Amino acid sequence: MAGLNLWNWAEDVARSTGQPLLPHGGQAAVCYRKLVAANVPWLFELDEFRPRWSARQLTVLRHVLGTAVHLVRTATR
């Protein structure tokens, strides 16, 4: 849940401060979708969802969330 919350919060901060948004295409989109499905599986007509991450997806997820932390930290100074 924390990863999805951070991603969404950083997007809100980026939009409200005019900063570039986080990556959205390719594997970033897959990662975001997996985070959403894990947190609100009923949106995907599932009872539960436990994501399985490839090495590439974990790399992308770390990059996006690291960028999100940086964005929030620099925008709130």
Give a written overview of the molecule.
This protein is mainly α and 77 residues long. It has one domain (1-76). The protein has helices at 2-17, 26-39, 55-75. Helix 1 packs across helix 3 and helix 2 packs across helix 3 (55-75). The model has no long low-confidence stretch (mean pLDDT 94).
Tell me the layout of helices and strands:
Blueprint: H1 2-17, H2 26-39, H3 55-75
Helix pairs in contact: 1-3, 2-3
When the domains are counted, the total is 1
Q: What is the terminal-to-terminal distance?
A: 25 Å
Strand content: under 5%
Class by alpha and beta content: mainly alpha
Radius of gyration: 13 Å
Helical content band: 55-70%
Order of helices and strands: HHH
Q: How many H/I helices? A: 3
Estimate the mean pLDDT confidence.
Answer: 94
Please mark out the parts with pLDDT under 50 across 5 or more consecutive residues, or reply none: none
Based on the model shown, name its key terms.
66% helix; 77 residues; mainly alpha; single chain
Quick take:
The protein is mainly α and 77 residues long.
